[in-house]
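Progress note, sequence design subtask.
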């Protein structure tokens, strides 16, 4: 039997869930996990100034504008926070072992999740997935749907859980496609964002206090 999908919490960007840089510490003190949404359509070129010279040179290698913007926003040395990668590919905050981070992209949106314990997160724009390896997975056979539109929603919802679970356990998401029981090993929350994307957060602990805000300069 499949795990029950977490209820999609409705979330839309507004003045109440705006987060300025000065607000970050107070939110961090009050919650176990914070996810910041960054809209590249509101991309600030001033962020480029936070990059090291080496990172500025790396940015030039990206062919598309949106890829360069994603790199700048999630660069390895922004606002005095230095990011590194473990041998398994997990993103780490240098000299801050008590802070755990997960990054995800969808269209022009970046989700940056910070947790006080290990977490995984994923954001996906709701759209048909052409990848046959994903849509043919028996994982999706456990969920009922009334029409093609509902199936698209459920596939995206489950896929964000798989991706976030893969990040939580440092494994390849495709390796989890034949593991229907994987959801029993993690706790999830999910959001329906701006009527166009689904975001899921996976943690090892239940009753995690999480917050979703948009980061505004």
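Output:
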């Amino acid at each position: 039997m499949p795990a029950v999908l977490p209820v999609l919490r409705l979330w839309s960007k507004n003045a109440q869930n705006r987060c300025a840089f000065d607000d970050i510490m107070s939110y961090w003190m009050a919650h176990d996990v914070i996810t910041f949404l960054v809209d590249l359509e509101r991309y600030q070129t001033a962020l480029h100034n936070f990059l090291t010279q080496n990172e500025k040179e790396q940015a030039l290698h990206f062919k598309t504008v949106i890829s360069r913007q994603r790199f700048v926003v999630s660069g390895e040395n922004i606002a005095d926070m230095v990011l590194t990668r473990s041998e398994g590919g997990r993103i780490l905050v240098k000299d801050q072992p008590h802070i755990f981070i997960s990054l995800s992209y969808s269209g022009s949106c970046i989700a940056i999740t910070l947790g006080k314990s290990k977490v995984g997160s994923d954001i996906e724009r709701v759209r048909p997935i052409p990848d046959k390896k994903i849509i043919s997975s028996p994982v999706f056979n456990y969920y009922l749907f009334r029409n093609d539109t509902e199936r698209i929603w459920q596939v995206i919802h489950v896929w964000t859980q798989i991706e976030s679970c893969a990040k939580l356990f440092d494994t390849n998401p495709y390796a989890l496609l034949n593991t229907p029981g994987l959801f029993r090993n993690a706790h999830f929350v999910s959001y329906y964002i701006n009527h166009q994307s689904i975001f899921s957060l996976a943690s090892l602990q239940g009753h995690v206090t999480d917050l979703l805000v948009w980061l505004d300069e």
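Residues 148-168 form the longest helix (21 residues). Work on this subtask will continue into the next period as scheduled.
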